[in-house]
Amino acid sequence: MSDMIFETHPSEYKHWKLEITPPLARLSMDVQLSGEDDDADYQRKLNSYDIHVDIELADAVNRLRFEHPDVKVVIVGSNRDRIFCAGANIFMLAGSSHPFKVNFCKYTNETRLGIEDASAFSGQKYIAAVSGTASGGGYELALACDEILLIDDRSSAVSFPEVPLLAVLPGTGGLTRVVDKRKVRRDLADVFSTTAEGVKGRRAVDWGLVDAVYPKSRFDAAVEERAQALAAAGDDKAGEGVALGPLEPTIDESGIAYRHVTMQVDADTRTAEITISAPEDAGPDNPAAIREAGADWWALRMFRELDDALLRLRFNHPDAGLVLLKTRGSAENVLAHDAALAAHHESDWFVSEVLHHAKRVLKRLDLTARTFYALADEESCFAGSLLEVALAADRTYMLDSPDDPVALQLGALSAGLLPMSNGLSRLETRFLDDPESVAAVLETSGPIDPQEAEELGLVTFAPDDLDWEDEVRLAIEERVCMSPDALTGMEASLRFAGPETLETKIFGRLSAWQNWIFQRPNAVGEHGALSLYGKPERAQFDWRRT
Amino acid sequence: MSDMIFETHPSEYKHWKLEITPPLARLSMDVQLSGEDDDADYQRKLNSYDIHVDIELADAVNRLRFEHPDVKVVIVGSNRDRIFCAGANIFMLAGSSHPFKVNFCKYTNETRLGIEDASAFSGQKYIAAVSGTASGGGYELALACDEILLIDDRSSAVSFPEVPLLAVLPGTGGLTRVVDKRKVRRDLADVFSTTAEGVKGRRAVDWGLVDAVYPKSRFDAAVEERAQALAAAGDDKAGEGVALGPLEPTIDESGIAYRHVTMQVDADTRTAEITISAPEDAGPDNPAAIREAGADWWALRMFRELDDALLRLRFNHPDAGLVLLKTRGSAENVLAHDAALAAHHESDWFVSEVLHHAKRVLKRLDLTARTFYALADEESCFAGSLLEVALAADRTYMLDSPDDPVALQLGALSAGLLPMSNGLSRLETRFLDDPESVAAVLETSGPIDPQEAEELGLVTFAPDDLDWEDEVRLAIEERVCMSPDALTGMEASLRFAGPETLETKIFGRLSAWQNWIFQRPNAVGEHGALSLYGKPERAQFDWRRT
Fold first, then answer.
1. How far off is chain B from A523, nearest CA to CA, in Å?
2. What are the phi and psi torsion angles at A400 (to 5°)?
3. Which helix (H) or strand (E) holds A288?
4. Residue B434's closest chain A neighbor by CA?
5. Does ipTM come in above 0.90?
6. Of residues A32, A25, A70, the one with CA closest to residue A48
7. Which residues of B touch A372 (CB under 8 A)?
8. What pLDDT is stored for residue B55 in this prediction?
9. Is B356 in CB contact (< 8 Å) with chain A?
10. pLDDT at B400
11. What is the pTM assigned to this prediction?
12. CB-based contact, B103 to chain A, within 8 Å
């Protein structure tokens, strides 16, 4: 497969139509069967989605927040007759590798959580206008919306055919959202999730699967009415949108270079190195100047670049199991940007968007199934929002050298403005149920030297300059020899101590079960249901329960 | 493999020594290499455990609560030199089927949670006296104890060699307990869990992996001292212990019959039927009479039988994917027993033990990876603690027939005395975040007829006598044709809505990851690390990360 690219723009969308009519926007799915510039060897029937379709959706959801502050309600619909969305393309799933399946599902999960994040923090509400059947991932997409309105035409239904037809799970958050978000009763959820044809009409409302049904004659008007009502309740945002220009990285054999982020991949050692550069100056400190900087503001631009690098890492470099995280430049300039974010995020919608974007990218880092070692070496600047990068890492090595003094530093965002999926700050997760240790860290002011960092529990090891090279090299060599799967399961278990949320339930519980099932012969074996989908043979199951 | 038996008695233990010296008890592991009456084709070296070893442990933990109320502290140790416990037997794991692996881990997890339950609700504290290396499942056993005391002899360590040596996880709660129970910092947990030789001495204390270390010369005295101090802080319990006699079921080809519980398995249809009989009278209503009844008290006896049946179902009948749950007899008599439990559990330790035992058995039901349909048919009595059985089921069918009136009924335990693993009552989980619906159910008094049961949301369907047979038959036929794996993942996701606890994290998150890894070629393939353990070849890994 050729390298995947995650940047796109509405002008390039092939599978979605985005119409902006403030305060509403319509995001209508119209999946093309096949395209000349993609490598799909399967047909995308029935509005079924693959990664290309979801990349456009993710782009639209993110772009609406930055570029269209006047949009208060997004209506997610379909431009196809009688079908809302049939979910993930089964032939694509059946034909793809296990690592791709898992990464595809993770990405689509992040996109759906992005919809919920937009609703919660941008005041952009989502209505799923289900004017045809929403099955599997199609219904899961609807579940990510604030409201689900279903057409009552005697045929359109919502359904989870995965278990009965494919021997896999509705693994894109569906099972979790049904019982935990919509609070559908567990026995009804059981019936629903094992009934391939789904549930329609009044019963879908009664069971809590959708919010309302309308007859065909009234459906469009009812959707419009509900959308306008939601929009009327929303707050206005001052000023124009901020266009997100292309990142235009330089790509060569050794890696990829953006303006502030570079990523090198070494195939021989199966490692990657991501280096983040601090801003070159303190940057704008008031909303007007920040708006002026727009998408070039370091706090937005750098995190967009990091996000793009992480996605390329996940999909294009599956063998790079260990990532070294480095920073370069001026800690003061990072902290100045953090201070501007902290000062203005409550009063300025754009600053708020930049903050929440940074939060999402750091969550993407937390959820990336690679080992991360942060290396606080000479010239590093793990301060403020860049300290979060180190706190997201599985380990941090900090050089303790009198000749090259290295420091960490807290910033205005460190106390909780960049929460993890579990709802806690990275410091609160690190020192679980130990508010005194969190407070001790937060009470520091100014640079923290290696010894203090070790005492405070901020770094794993602080070798001196004699030991540094050997210790880091050894830690790298040991790590890259371990089983990728065992490391993935271990890291997923150690990174998210503490409370659970819808997000952590989806990534930790549901996805883990889905990954398991994606390995089971009953699904993916020669006679498995996923393998045989669309073929005349019936699946043959090993009946042993586990 | 011949049918497994889960009942045992200290007089029959092969692998543990149980010494009772009130207020202390010593439970010392001394795993026999092989025995004449077991079918193991592997050597149990280094105090490594298999299911037979764990069955004895589970028996001891449970029996201590009922038979030895004067024991306040249990010291878990080893009778072997230089080894505490090496964890699960690797050769046993490598040679066993996937369903067995998964069920083995579930059982050992339940046993360790049983230790924590004894500490929390019986006031029997557990000290792990680690006078030799505790590796893998050995350290996980120690983690289930209240305190871990480690000998400081320059060689004894605690360790998780699973990831670096075996390409699997410390899946018996280990990863979760390290970060969530002991709150070891995640980066230190990462180093610990990837360092095969483990951590010893002062560093083990500093990292929070153990509570204290003592030199060899002082170790035994220090353990004794700490145990006596804990015992001195414990409350006294009045009266003698209650001996748990053997259940002595009748077993024939059609199934197993206990005094109050029967289980039939139909291999052709891959279904099982468990029928629970209500007590024949109201039973004793005061502590003295209850103590007189002892292990014959229905509330204890019936749940012990149900527990035994569930374990036999899991291990001996892997193909029976659907279980029909039935009840027979007098609802009033069940409710009278519930009332006695509710009235005296706070003042009488034995009644409290019976209540907590019922709670654990119902949790075992929740966690059993089979579909459960409760059938409230004529002559059924889903009332009180038996209503919990229906609420634990994936669906409940209730016959709505004027000729054979069927009723459900709440009881004195329904409001929260039998919580699930998520900490909520089954009603609170069923009506998540909907206290009004919970209250509406709890406010009912007396029998609830099918129509009311449906309105209250207590049953899934209430077919009339014309439809009953067909509807139930169809629901059974559909279910048994679906993929066992997909159903397991689905049920695990739908059953535990709401908050997460250490228990649900272990069973839902950690176990799911472990199950996944137990399928991965990197662990169990021809060249996988688990398959090659103990052999000269090195494991070969597929390096792709997921």
1. 8
2. -110, 90
3. helix A287-293
4. A183
5. yes
6. A32
7. none
8. 97
9. no
10. 97
11. 0.95
12. yes
